Amino acid sequence: MAAKVKGISQARKNLNALVGDIQGRMAVRAIQSALIIGGSQAALYTPIDTSTLINSQYRDIEVNGTRVTGRVGYSANYAIYVHDPDVPQTFRRATAKKEFLSKGFEDTKRQIDAVIAKEMSL
Asked: 68, 88, 87, 85: which is closest to 24 by C-alpha?
């Protein structure tokens, strides 16, 4: 005796929506963690004179469909000149480096890969 079960397609649709929502949240959390790690190291390398540059650091996450993009930057208008290796400068801070933003992420690549793998695992 077979009985017809109603609602299977609706349950499947709800399950797919739930799984997609969980994966979306995990991806955003992984990107946020990566930005925090890389941005923290970049802040350590950022030259400090009046603290305007280091206080202008920002993080931004943009979700566009299935693409999640994270960005760390500096809103101070002179940040590009301080970051540029072709502009000669001397820094007071011992840990300050040229290309501080790029090097901050390069030096923490292993940590970033590990945290993304951890956040994306179920």
From this structure: 68
